[in-house]
Write a structure and sequence with these properties.
Length: 288
């Protein structure tokens, strides 16, 4: 694969794309690039004011709708207000935050990064015409799915392991969704992507000394948010993707570079766990 960039995005006129967390960072850059290629973009943001600033900069192809992934009532309200969507990009997320609970009592990282997006995708699925892209992370490699204690109610909370669990959850969901779509002979594709190490405000909310460490290291170690958004953009727009494909940067152990197809670990491909995890997610979100 040659060095794919935003210049390679096919014409997006006529497509409607929902991008979660599009008020900053990777989501903002994803929305900007898609609108620049002609797509109508819905910026799904918890912080509507910040989203409106981004939408104003993008122009008439962008609109903002409130979505709080840490509140299933908000997810349902948002989904009910979307009439048409060709591509859903599950981009929003939190990383390594202190132990907190969502409005529905879920641990904040699994609740926001996975369960909120799981509910959103299922609620919109009858209106999605082309693709679902779920943003994971190389941190999935440290994750384990604890079906008996998904929400850290019985274990000592460890923020990075909780983050790893949520990112592994993203991949299990993306792959299982593709299997279910294939079984239904659906033309909709489920894909996954990860940004490598990108300089965004995701690294500034641990509320610990780690915020300072990452702030110092980001300029030297991280690639730009524009580059970090490329794998998601590739997954969302390229005609060359494969069903259930996973895309990330191509250099320095997938920390930076241009998008290409990458591999995830064996846990992410465990179909038995994926099926059980899907069923648990349905129960927790009161969905079928």
């Amino acid at each position: 694969m040659t060095a794919w960039t935003t210049r390679d995005i096919p014409d997006q006129h006529g497509r409607t794309v929902v991008v979660t967390g599009a008020n900053s960072g990777l989501g903002e850059q994803t929305a900007r690039a898609l609108a620049g290629a002609g797509a109508d973009v819905i910026l799904a943001c918890r912080d509507v004011k910040k989203g409106e600033v981004v939408a104003a900069a993008i122009g008439s192809r962008a609109q903002v709708k409130r979505l709080d992934l840490a509140d299933l009532a908000s997810v349902r309200e948002f989904a009910a207000g979307v009439e048409k969507v060709d591509v859903l990009i599950n981009n929003a997320g939190v990383m390594a935050v202190p132990l907190r609970r969502t409005a529905d009592g879920f641990e904040m990282q699994i609740g926001t990064n996975h369960l909120g997006h799981f509910a959103l995708t299922n609620l919109l699925l009858d209106r999605i015409t082309e693709r679902v892209v779920t943003v994971s992370s190389s941190a999935h490699k440290i994750g384990q799915i604890h079906l008996d204690d998904l929400n850290w109610e019985h274990r000592r909370y460890q923020r990075w392991l909780a983050y790893g669990q949520s990112k592994l959850a993203n991949l299990l969901f993306a792959y299982e969704l593709q299997r279910r779509l294939t079984a239904q002979v659906s033309s909709v594709l489920s894909l996954a992507a990860h940004p490598g190490y990108a300089r965004t405000n995701l690294q500034s909310h641990t509320e610990s000394f780690q915020d300072l460490v990452m702030k110092i290291g980001n300029p030297f170690l991280g690639q730009s948010a524009e580059m970090g958004a490329l794998p998601s953009l590739y997954a969302a727009t390229s005609p060359d993707v494969v069903p259930g494909g996973y895309y990330g940067p191509d250099t320095l152990f997938e920390t930076r570079g241009h998008p290409h197809r990458v591999r995830s670990n064996a846990r992410s491909h465990d179909e038995t766990v994926a099926r059980q995890f899907w069923e648990l997610s349905e129960q927790l979100c009161s969905l079928t």
